[in-house]
Specification:
With about 30 residues, the protein is mainly alpha-helical. It has one domain. Helix content is about 95%, strand content about 0%. The chain is built from 1 helix and no strands. It is rod-shaped, with a radius of gyration of 14 Å.
Length: about 30
């Protein structure tokens, strides 16, 4: 049960970092 919770936490971190990266890319495109 604990291992499943850790795996879920990792997925949330990955998704969050991916979302930030996508937003950063969109902002960069809008600026130029």
């Amino acid at each position: 049960m604990s291992t499943h919770r850790i795996q879920k936490n990792i997925w949330i971190k990955v998704f969050r970092s991916y979302a930030i990266l996508t937003i950063y890319r969109i902002m960069k495109i809008n600026k130029s």
